[in-house]
Amino acid sequence: MRIAITADNHLTDKKKHPERWKTLENILNDIREKDINKIIICGDLFNDDCHNYSEFDKLTDKYNNIDFLIIPGNHDPNISEKAITGSNVTIYTEPEVISFNDSDYSFFFLPYKPKITMGQQFVSYQEDLIPREWILISHGDWADSIRTPNPIEPDVYMPLSRKDIANYKPTLTILGHIHKPLDDTDYNVHYVGSPCGLDITETGRRRYSILDTKNLDLEHINVDSEVIYFDETINIWPMENEDEYLKNQIAKIKERWDLNSEEMSKAKIRIKIKGYSSNIRKLKDFCEKSFEGFSFWNNEKPDISEVYESYNYELLKITEKVVARIDQQSWVEIEGEPIKNEIISKAIKTIYSIS
């Protein structure tokens, strides 16, 4: 049997964020075409401000051939079957070990609880959690490995540690809470990610997952998201061919996005230019023209607020060598550390501050 998995949908009143509802429907239509009749939602199906679930009842009734298996997250801890009426909806408000007929593995559905770790909750169920024969479905922080900081939620939420993995040995862990899709293959821990970016900080294509309960193959599927966010920074410094340089940088960005015509219509972009230029007006006009046809987030135009006027071409060679040297390095994004583009920006600012 195959089961679809998603998380962090953050549904609100449909009029407020219709794109989140439509993206979930796109997933449901896709899995129905794939003849999949179960979907697991690993927490934060709803947002904090959602307290009327009648719209979700209509959705589950529309897809009454699909079973919805839901665990509450930190944004919807109070959802229960008292408020959600669909006969095809099961909400696991308490930890529960369940089995599927075709699988040799048990599933431990662990809903979010505040002020406790996942490991502390494993203790009460350790007789049912046979090492390497169970799968963890939960919502919280994989505290000892890959973690993308969330500025909105800087605290730690029901953490899972490497010690927990070592002691109880789940064969596979699938989590909600972190909105960026992440895969820690060393420990077989996966964040499915939010299927529709909630704002400009959640960039790029999104995904949902399909798990084969027999052989535990986990397949990640690109979601037909109703909105796709992109947030890009371009570093600039005075040079004789600024237009050509910008043209190449923008071409690389568009190539990386690799959007088809339908995706382009759904894209919301934010572009920031940082550094030094000999002609800021020309720079601004060139950037606006280069991104014609795209929708800018919040109707903003390319941000040139951190571009400063400079005609000092003597520093060009120094800047080119420094940028080339930085580009040659192997950069791995680490929590709390600046990314390569930020380092280049600081280097350029340092060089031109001496002029």
* Poorly predicted runs: none
| CATH homologous superfamily identity of the largest domain | Metallo-dependent phosphatases
What is the 3D shape?
A: elongated
Question: What's the count of strands?
Answer: 16
Helix vs. strand class:
alpha/beta
Q: Count of DSSP helices?
A: 9
What is the CATH first-level class name of the largest domain?
Answer: Alpha Beta
Order of helices and strands: EHEHEEEEHEHEEEEEEHHEHEEHH
**Average pLDDT value?**
91
Tell me about the biggest sheet? 6 strands, mixed
Please bin the fraction of helical residues: 25-40%
Domains (count): 2
Order of strands in the sheet with the most strands? Answer: 4-3-2-1-11-12
Question: How much beta, percentage-wise?
Answer: 15-25%
CATH topology of the largest domain: Purple Acid Phosphatase, chain A, domain 2
Report on the structure:
- With 355 residues, this protein is an alpha/beta fold.
- It has two domains: 2-222, Purple Acid Phosphatase, chain A, domain 2; 231-352, no CATH class.
- The protein contains nine helices and 16 strands.
- The protein has helices at residues 18-33, 54-62, 118-122, 162-168, 242-257, 261-266, 280-290, 316-328, 340-352; strands spanning 2-6, 38-42, 67-71, 89-91, 96-99, 106-110, 134-139, 172-176, 182-184, 189-191, 207-212, 218-222, 228-236, 267-277, 295-296, 303-309.
- Strands 4-3-2-1-11-12 form a six-stranded mixed β-sheet, with helices on one face. Strands 5-6-7-8-10-9 form a six-stranded mixed β-sheet, with no helix packed on it.
- Helix 7 (280-290) links the parallel strand 14 (267-277) and strand 15 (295-296).
- Helix 5 (242-257) packs parallel to helix 7 and helix 8 packs antiparallel against helix 9 (340-352).
- It is elongated.
- The protein starts with a strand and ends with a helix.
